[in-house]
Design brief:
By secondary structure, the protein is an alpha/beta fold. Strands 1-2-3-4-5-8-11-14 form an 8-stranded parallel β-barrel. A 3-stranded antiparallel β-sheet has the order 10-9-15. The chain has a two-stranded antiparallel sheet with strand order 6-7. It is 32% helix and 13% strand.
Length: 506
């Protein structure tokens, strides 16, 4: 007779713990708070909005005092950023680093829960090799300043990368980093200081390169046939897991499997230009809702089961002053009037997002698909590379206008994209027509333009293909064109004709 109340109490406590876990203990869900806008609500209003959600962390691209103060005593973790332009001074002057830490961390801590500092943004893959060479010294000086302030270990030091730091990602189990000693030295620093590797995977960009229904379902974490890693036999059910596991494999390959991975950015725009595929509210809601459910399930990825990778959704609000296509200004989860753009399941009062529940993520190997199965790109990101994994079942071959499956992933995603040797004029003309139809400026190869001469299909196609490659994000799958293109590190510019160099979204 006396056991019944005890059992009821245990049941009540169990349910209470489950409820607490769902709505309050989601330290793995964060959001990016960009400020390239002129219509953002006051920081205090944003802080109050965040407290009504299950978001536990915020990533800033700088160290705005008003925002840091507004988040004081909320318990919300804050990642602040040092600008790329600060890196030379941080690297060369320990006093500058000390003053930076004092001004941007110590005067707010611990009331404002600053948990990490990102030194620069996508520095390794930037067009300035000198900046990349100064990155680790800058990080070390900031780390030393934190140590001197007894904040070492409490505030982590890292830097954010696009997925282009990977030189190989097909299949995820063969993930490998490019950028040689630069990445190796960076990983040594992260390992020595127990700091995370921060990465920006964007399945949205993979879908742009391969806009088929099966690719969309795979990218949106919706039910799909899955894709098999030919190296391990593991079936992947979504692009996010494949990308994260490619990074994990790259870390393991370099002997740094101890380094934690943090997803610094990922998201899906709810609107875009007519040429941007899949930019709808339904797709944005599906991606973010299903991803949040996936993280909450703590099923993890096939190579990192039973854990949720810290993930910062992009973004808190639209940034109406950002340049580029409409999608760049359309990632906001909330509007400037503090209402939801759509319900992704982040508000504590509405914990049911996911318009379509995702399929489970099995970790057991399954038999690879037949060898003649056409490869399907599963890569992306701000752009970035996690290329294809072989689909589980053969799919009807499709001839994409702009091929998306990198054939030679050994080169880092940089340099210039040019035609391979021996490609027919007909193929090059097709590439030329496609590239110039993608909202890039082909006026330089029109009569009177700086690159019109020599007036050959090969010359004009080379210019247009490279321009599309640079504009699309300089990812390996952007320079494929059905295996008719290759990345070169020799500048093809000549005379008055200047081939565009590297450029990335910020």
């Amino acid at each position: 007779m006396e056991k019944a109340p005890s059992s009821l109490l245990l049941c009540f406590l169990f349910c209470l713990l489950l409820s607490f876990d769902i709505t309050s203990c989601q330290s793995f869900i964060g959001v990016n708070y960009g400020q390239v806008a002129d219509n953002l609500p006051p920081p205090d209003a944003t802080a109050n909005l965040l407290k009504s959600t299950s978001i536990e962390k915020v990533r800033l691209y700088g160290a705005d005092p008003a925002i840091i103060r507004a988040l004081a005593n909320t318990g919300i973790g804050i990642v602040i950023g040092a600008a790329n332009g600060d890196i030379p001074a941080l690297a060369s002057d320990p006093n500058f680093a000390g003053n930076w830490v004092y001004s941007n961390v110590m005067v707010y801590y611990p009331a404002s829960k600053i948990i990490a500092i990102s030194i620069g943004n996508e520095v390794v893959t930037s067009s300035d090799p000198n900046l990349a060479s100064q990155l680790v010294p800058a990080m070390q000086n900031v780390q030393n300043a934190l140590n001197a302030a007894s904040l070492g270990g409490k505030v982590k030091v890292s830097t954010v990368h696009s997925m282009a730091v990977l030189s190989q990602s097909d299949p995820p189990s063969s993930g490998a980093f490019g950028y040689g000693d630069t990445m190796r030295n960076l990983l040594r620093f992260l390992s020595a200081n127990d700091s995370p590797l921060m990465i920006n995977p964007y399945p949205f960009f993979a879908y742009q390169s391969d806009p088929r229904p099966e690719t969309l379902a795979f990218c949106l974490l919706q039910p799909n046939a899955g894709r098999v890693d030919s190296g391990t036999g593991i079936k992947y059910m979504n692009m996010f897991d494949a990308q994260v596991d490619a990074v994990h494999s790259a870390l393991k390959a370099m002997g740094f499997s101890d380094i934690e991975i943090v997803v610094a950015e990922t998201g899906w725009p709810y609107r875009g230009d007519p040429t941007e595929k899949g930019t709808t509210i339904d797709n944005a809601k599906a991606y973010n809702g299903n991803l949040i459910n996936h993280l909450r399930s703590k099923v993890g990825t096939p190579l990192m089961p039973q854990k949720s990778v810290d993930t910062y959704l992009f973004a808190m609000y639209d940034e109406d002053l950002k340049p580029g296509p409409l999608s760049e200004r359309s990632f906001g989860l909330f509007k400037s009037d503090l209402t939801m753009t759509y319900n992704a399941g982040l508000l504590r009062s509405s914990q049911t997002p996911a318009p379509v529940s995702e399929a489970p993520t099995p970790t057991a190997p399954v038999a690879p698909a037949p060898a003649n199965t056409p490869p399907t790109s599963i890569s992306p990101t701000t752009p970035a590379p996690v290329t294809p994994v072989t689909p589980v079942a053969p799919v009807t071959p499709v001839t994409p206008v702009n091929p998306v499956t990198p054939v030679n992933p050994n080169l880092g995603a940089s340099g210039w994209c040019v035609p391979r040797a021996g490609i027919s004029e007909a193929r090059l003309q097709s590439n030329l027509d496609y590239a110039c139809g993608q909202n890039i400026d082909c006026s330089a190869i029109q009569p009177g333009g700086s690159c019109f001469e020599p007036a050959t299909v090969h010359s004009h196609a080379a210019y247009a293909m490279n321009l599309l490659y640079q504009s699309a994000g300089r990812n390996q799958w952007n320079c494929d064109f059905s295996d008719t293109a290759i990345i070169t590190h020799t500048n093809p510019s000549y005379g008055p004709c200047v081939y565009h160099g590297e450029g990335r979204r910020g």
